[in-house]
Amino acid sequence: MLRNILCWIVIVITCSGCISVQTGDLDVTSKQQCKQSARMLRHVVMFKFKDDATAEQIKEVEIAFTSLPGKIDAIKCFEWGTNVSVENLSEGFTHCFVVTFANKDGLDAYLNHPDLKEFRKTLGGPLEKVLVVDYWATHHRDGG
Known about the structure:
Layout: H1 2-16, E1 39-49, H2 55-66, E2 77-82, E3 95-101, H3 104-111, H4 114-121, E4 127-138
Antiparallel strand pairs: 1-3, 1-4, 2-3
């Protein structure tokens, strides 16, 4: 079942292109434009929060994660949102963050960046589970 969810996420992301999203009163300032090359490396991070996580704790995580594009130059595009599916297949994962890189070196720089390491330290309290998928997105025009 989880494989089906991931497949749908990959399909939706690939078909939608790379778009900066804002939710609620958070103003997500991403890179000026998400310029696409033939291949981009996507890093998908999904969060499942503990049942007792407060709205304030969740908002703190959202703000902290959405601040990373302004701190880490390797991020070429950033988008995020909360689950709105009516299929009831999310297995409790409510938040999806998609971080795009031009290449593996960019992903490596991100994964080793001090600001990401600091962000990770704050996640222990409200998070129950994290799911991460990396994939190379290849964009095709109609008929190709």
